[in-house]
Design brief:
By secondary structure, the chain is mainly beta. The protein has one helix at 2-16, and strands at residues 31-34, 38-44, 48-57, 65-71, 83-84, 88-91, 97-105, 113-120, 126-127, 131-138, 142-149, 157-163, 168-172, 181-188, 191-199, 209-214, 217-223, 229-236. The protein is built from 1 helix and 18 strands. The termini are far apart.
Length: 237
């Protein structure tokens, strides 16, 4: 009963002091936890990133302590090749903080994935909740998003974005009739571009529209009544 009481008090203290870099210590409860229950992380497009993650204990002892780290594969949506997690984390002797390195690689990150980690402990040791890592792509140039709102005939719509050299850098087609909307994005360098859209039937998107957003700001908007097709030039940034 005493342990349950202290567990409640400790959890409350974690909530109240979550902004501190170290966890409060107590000799009455053997407890280990990740530094947070959730974190937002990013990885550069077609690149990789490393993050140091901390684990805290409530007790300091004179010997190293090692805890197993497991990945909850049912809750994790990231491709196995997109992350590397060590099998264990060690809290050094005379310390209540241990760290491990998490590696991320842009493999099928797309619009974002999650990785859920757990700590495994021996009998008599309490542990905190799992940690959920939300991973997204980082664009260090121009994060261009194409937002399309369709009429009932999305299959008739196709579009391209070309750079100043005439190279297609982003394109979309193959939509399904009845599909309400769609989006696409690309990380593009500064420069001049042309967005061109075509309609196979020749009546455009009707009440639909197309919007280009760069780093949160509107670049161009195309009304749906463009007939067989239209184009617009724009410059990034």
């Amino acid at each position: 009963m005493k342990n349950i009481k202290y567990l409640f008090l400790f959890v409350a203290s974690v909530f109240l002091f979550s902004c501190e870099t170290e966890m409060p210590e107590t000799t009455d409860l053997n407890y280990v936890t990740f530094e947070a229950t959730s974190m937002d992380l990013g990885v550069t497009i077609d690149g990789s990133s490393d993050y140091e993650i901390a684990v805290y204990t409530t007790q300091t002892v004179g010997t190293d302590r090692t805890f197993d780290i497991t990945v909850d594969l049912e809750a994790t949506t990231a491709d196995a090749q997109a992350y590397s997690v060590p099998a264990t984390v060690t809290v050094p002797a005379n310390s209540n903080t241990g760290t491990f390195m998490l590696g991320l690689t842009d493999v099928n990150i797309g619009d974002g994935v999650s990785i859920v980690l757990n700590l495994e402990v021996d009998a008599g040791v309490f542990k905190g909740d799992a940690m959920e890592l939300s991973v997204t792509q980082l664009c260090e140039q121009n994060d261009l998003n194409v937002l399309l709102t369709f009429d009932d005939w999305a299959s008739e719509c196709s579009w391209t974005i070309t750079n100043a050299s005439g190279t297609v850098v982003l394109a979309g087609s193959g939509y399904s009739d009845g599909q309400a909307d769609a989006s696409a994005k690309a990380c593009l360098p500064d420069g001049a571009y042309t967005f061109a859209v075509a309609d196979a039937y020749g009546d455009g998107l009707g009440s639909g529209s197309i919007m280009l957003i760069n780093n949160g700001s509107e670049v161009a908007t195309i009304a749906g009544d463009y007939g067989t097709g239209t184009s617009v030039d724009f410059t990034l940034p």
